[in-house]
Amino acid sequence: MTFPLVDTWFERRKIDDDITVLWEPHVIELMRCNIWHVRGLNRDLIVDTGMGVASLATELADIVDKPVLAVATHGHDDHIGSHHEFDSVLVHPAEAAQLENPPLTSLDMVQAWGIEEVEGLARAGYEVTDSLFVRALPIGVELETFAQKPARVTRLIDEGHIIDLGDRQFEVLHLPGHSPGSIGLWEAATGTLFSGDAVYDGPLLDELHHSNVADYCTTMQRLLELPVNVVHGGHDPSFGRERLQQIARAYLDRRL
Ligand SMILES: [Zn+2]
Q1: Interval between CA 81 and ligand 1 midpoint (Å)
Q2: What would the mean pLDDT of 37-52 be, rounded to a whole number?
Q3: What spacing in Å lies between the alpha carbon of 230 and ligand 1's midpoint?
Q4: How far apart are CA 119 and CA 109, in angstroms?
Q5: Which of 66, 100, 108, 126 would be a feasible disulfide site paired with 121, CB 3.0-4.6 Å?
Q6: Is a pLDDT exceeding 80 seen at residue 2?
Q7: How far apart are CA 7 and CA 20, in angstroms?
Q8: Spatial separation of the C-alpha atoms in residues 91 and 153, rounded to whole Å
């Protein structure tokens, strides 16, 4: 099989002076997560790290000039691949094992997950037409030997904890449902929510092996009340409060 080799792996876009989003264009849409960089006064924040196919730390070298706090919104394969590159790794206790022992040891979807999980995604509304998670690889990375590397979790974060960048403070919101330890980072001063996979503008996944629909409903009720200006999700484009409420109400109508 011929497979394209590429010399740039990430793309990025500046949202404002301090926030940049990065993504992996050669990863299939289903697994292409948003990687957020927030510049702080004393510390920078990274929210999720992608698949771990290429070095995120190298990619970020030109915009990071301070200690980095690398948060995982949850432990799923597509959000945790490069946490091992960072000294400070923060995650909810229910998801820590997935960072310390990442289960992804293949870029072949069925080999990695099993056929039942893949069929479940199709039922949730994802067209799964690729057999691999990637459509190209960075030069020097081999399909056969790829495996995610373990990270060292340095801080367990839960509801109400504060992540302080010096000039910006993010409060941890525990938002379970998609996974037991899903969290969001809420900056009340600007109405900004980094929501991970608790909410994004695409088909939501609540039938994974550790998803919980009742918890997800509680999370959606909570999000309905949150005075957000902007939601930066784990996938798909960002959106405002009106769209958040549409998504939450549609979920509750379907599941409650
Ligand atoms: Zn997820």
Answers
A1: 13
A2: 98
A3: 20
A4: 11
A5: 126
A6: no
A7: 21
A8: 7
